[in-house]
Design goal:
The complex is a heterodimer of chains A (202) and B (164). With 202 residues, chain A is an alpha/beta fold. Chain A is built from four helices and ten strands. In chain A, strand 8 and strand 9 form a beta hairpin. The longest helix of chain A has 17 residues. Chain B has five helices and six strands. The chains are: A alpha/beta (202), B alpha/beta (164).
């Protein structure tokens, strides 16, 4: 025998709502707090080792178990001078125009031509320094880890000395260091001279 | 003549009125996660000083907190937000006969001794927030002073820009 359906079944089902307002308040407060403290400009570090420190790092960091297989006491003495007419680039200490001393003049608008400097330094890296002979490593005192780097036929194959007129703004020096550090060719980053040394203008 | 109230209206199911908070909460949660990620990736450890206009660079290197100083055309200061102590005056900074900035050297030496006093390793690194208008001469004076005070690693704070 079938029972008659209960009349109570017609009663409206009450919806159980979660009260979201307190949660909304918390989330809104957190967003306001984080936006207030957020840094919209991304900062970075430009590490600079003074010449004496850089030399110590090179001399002391070689792995003691194995002597280097290369003998690269020769130096290229690459120097970029940030002067009034533009950049002057010298190799092997040369100061007379020729293959080992050239200039990169300023652009017509008076700004330094960082792009051409990078192009010329890429040529120097390819033609004068060539391919790396091997990989060496030094102990990074800060991270306590070994940092590996390429070794070239010139002992200072990764270094560049910078000099500038006394009134040269720091921003120009930083851009010059950027131009000397490396370049991106076909989406591949090519290291040029990442170790910059600031020297007194001669 | 007044009409009698409709019987249908009496039994009509009352529709709930109000905001649909579910989707809004989803959106807020996404924003919250984004901001948390931003906070963790940039690192709250290093905050650019309000007293300098930092240079831009393509260099990508995570900031680290160490002994920190601010160099702007008005002088050299310790890196704190309010009432920073002046370590070198504008006159000292532009003095062409000076090689070392005495006040800065004293400060750096104090910090070095304090680090050693705490029993921590002295790494010899100093973070410099240097204004982009500082000249090469002034920069060399600061660099020489840091070297004199046995700080061998100098980290310049820059604003990151896209690779050239």
């Amino acid at each position: 025998m079938a029972f008659k359906p209960s009349l109570k079944r017609k009663r409206e089902e009450e919806e159980a709502d979660v009260n979201l307002m307190p949660m909304m308040n918390i989330v809104c407060s957190l967003i306001a707090l984080l936006m207030g403290t957020a840094q919209m400009t991304e900062i970075s570090m430009l590490e600079y080792l003074p010449p004496a420190e850089a030399a110590e790092a090179e001399d002391s960091g070689a792995p003691p178990a194995e002597a280097p297989k290369w003998n690269n006491d020769a130096t290229i003495d690459l120097l970029v001078n940030i002067g009034e007419p533009g950049f002057q680039v010298s190799l092997f200490g040369k100061t007379e125009p020729g293959p080992y001393f050239f200039e990169v003049p300023k652009l017509p608008d008076g700004n330094y031509d960082f792009h051409t400097l990078t192009v010329r330094l890429t040529q120097v890296k390819d033609q004068e320094i060539g391919s790396p002979l091997g990989i060496d490593s030094v102990l990074n005192e800060n991270t306590k880890k070994m940092d590996s780097f390429e070794v070239f036929r010139y002992k200072d194959g990764r270094e560049i000395s910078l000099t500038a007129l006394g009134d040269t703004p720091f921003q120009v020096v930083v851009h010059t260091m950027d131009a000397c550090r490396g370049t991106t060719v076909d989406s591949v980053y090519k290291e040029l001279f990442p170790v910059a040394k600031l020297q007194t203008f001669q | 003549m007044a009409f009698a109230p409709s019987k249908g209206a009496k039994h009509r199911r009352k529709e709930k009125e109000g905001l649909i908070l579910g989707s809004m909460l989803d959106m807020m949660t996404v924003i919250l996660l984004f901001l948390l990620k931003l906070q963790s990736s940039t690192g709250a450890m290093m905050k650019p000083s309000q007293y300098v206009n930092l240079p831009t660079s393509t260099r990508e290197m995570a900031p680290e907190k160490s002994v920190s100083i601010v160099v702007n055309p008005e002088g050299v200061y310790e890196d704190i937000e309010k009432n920073p102590r002046q370590l070198a005056t504008k006159e000292e900074l532009i003095d062409s006969s000076a090689v070392i900035l005495d006040g800065l050297e004293t400060y750096l030496s104090e910090q070095r001794e304090f680090t050693k006093h705490l029993g921590k390793d002295f790494k010899g690194s100093v973070t410099i927030q240097c204004d982009q208008a500082i000249t090469y001469d002034q920069l060399l004076r600061v660099v020489n002073t840091c070297g004199q005070a046995e700080y061998g690693t100098l980290d310049f704070v820059v604003v990151k820009k896209g690779k050239a």
